[in-house]
Amino acid sequence: MCELFSLSGRLPAPVGFSLEQLARHGENAGPRDGWGVAFYDGRAVSLFREPSPVSDSALVRFVEQHAPPSSLVISHIRKATFGDRLLCNTHPFARELAGREHIFAHNGNLAGIVQDPDFAPHRFQPVGDTDSELAFCNLLERLAGLWEQDEDVIPALRDRLDIIAGFAADLRAFGPANFLYSDADILFAHADRRHQPDGEIRAPGLHFLMRSCREKAAVLTGGGVTMPAQQQDVILVASVPLTDEGWQPMAEGEIIALGAGQIIGRRLP
After folding, report:
1. What number does CATH give the domain 3-267?
2. Lower CB density within 10 Å: C or N end of the chain?
3. Is 190 exposed, middle or buried (0-12, 13-18, 19+ CB in 10 A)?
């Protein structure tokens, strides 16, 4: 399956990635079908993607060495199950809504979503042909009315969580639906099921780790992620634990909302 990774920090920092090392933590370390990483800077995003394995990419080496400072990062390593190996099918996906860039990455297989009339695209159209991008377009359709009431006002977190929780419940009916989504304000992580080492599909689909270096600056290193020495609060979310630290498994259907390196909202099904 695909591998998801995200980071929410209190302060922007140049986050170093070893995407190849991140890919090795999954249950299948064989060749992958693409990679992508999004670095937020306010409402805008620096997005890097390629429909090729990380081991073959010169761009990956550049990103690893020259990542832009960011306090909100979303990354995805693709194992294609739906859609050809093309740039348009490579996560994360980006769309504009209310003058800000929204980012989405998904892990799972949503069998039957293309045929469901409730997910037929309208205002937001897929560029590629993956189930994941179609789901993202549907999420933005649901959120658009909330954001466009007043583009100068960020909608209440509770209202956004209500919509995202309903969307996530609908996705789970199609199959495993782990996803990361950000509206340039909050990072939302939804956990479901995924292939486990024994071959079964079950929870947990995501894990998270809270790190705090407020009292003493320290280098945050491990699992393919490196951050500089500075006072920092950070939460990492990943498909599987990346280090030997106390990663916490998320429950099936759980959603956490992250801001500035803290959990600021939570929903259970």
Report:
1. 3.60.20.10
2. C
3. buried
